[in-house]
Amino acid sequence: MNLSKLLILASAMSVSATAFAAGAHSDGHGMGSGEPGKASEASRTITVEMYDNYYEPETIEVKAGETVRFVVENKGNLVHEFNIGTPSMHEAHQEEMMMMVEHGVIQGGKLNRDMMEMDMGNGHSMKHDDPNSVLLEPGESQEIVWTFTGKGNIEFACNVPGHYQAGMYGEVNFK
């Protein structure tokens, strides 16, 4: 690689690292939607299936203060995310997810997990390990245990670029 290409790459990585390290969330990852729960306190389990650009179920009803265990399964052909948060948090998180695509972490139906470990500076990486979210390849499943506070407008969404805009989000309604 010649010197000019190296400088361009280093500059791009520096700008992206600075943006990623600064964080895009005004209300934090999942803040305002609840908090991580304990599996032993879950009142029920909800299975959420992710297909290419929709969820089943599309709406979830919870009680304020309820702890729910989610079993999330990717039944689609693409990488998908299940993320619990406010609409503004999802909008900000989409910028971070775009960087994951730009850096080759998300590659259609595959995740480059080695790239997720890459040091972006200031101790930040592209790990996707927030307690309110899972990012899954086709055929994978994972669990989230979440306690809902009952405040605000809460939804679950896939913030992989273009998926939210295609309708891959659902409502969390409080009973």
Automatic annotation (TrEMBL):
Gene3D superfamilies: Cupredoxins - blue copper proteins (2.60.40.420). Residues 1-21 form the signal peptide. InterPro entries: Cu-binding_ET, Cupredoxin, EfeO_Cupredoxin. GO terms for molecular function: metal ion binding. It comes from Marinobacter orientalis. This is Cupredoxin family protein. Keywords: Copper, Metal-binding, Signal. It holds the Pfam family Cupredoxin_1. Residues 38-86 form the EfeO-type cupredoxin-like domain.
